[in-house]
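Good morning C.,

I know you're traveling, so I'll keep this short. The sequence:
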Amino acid sequence: MDIMGNTTKIITALELYQQKIRKLHIAKHLNKHRETIGIWVDGIEELGLKKFLDNYENAKKVERKAKHIDPKLKMKVCEIREREFDCCG
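The tokens, ready to paste straight into the viewer:
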């Protein structure tokens, strides 16, 4: 069970990085990808911790536009999949 939230992980990652711990070791410790740690550290260095955390928290609250796929295109893909025995379309 992961009881540490992402905000706590971001702050912990920053503190470990400032102590010259390698991103790979931080990632293993926090059960995150090394690239994620890099994105967090780079974002914090660019924006500062408070602004980065504000952006991080608000990013998940933005309403996203629904994807609209042309029905004719979707039907054509389904026809190809059926014709090709369920290959990826």
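Safe travels,
E.
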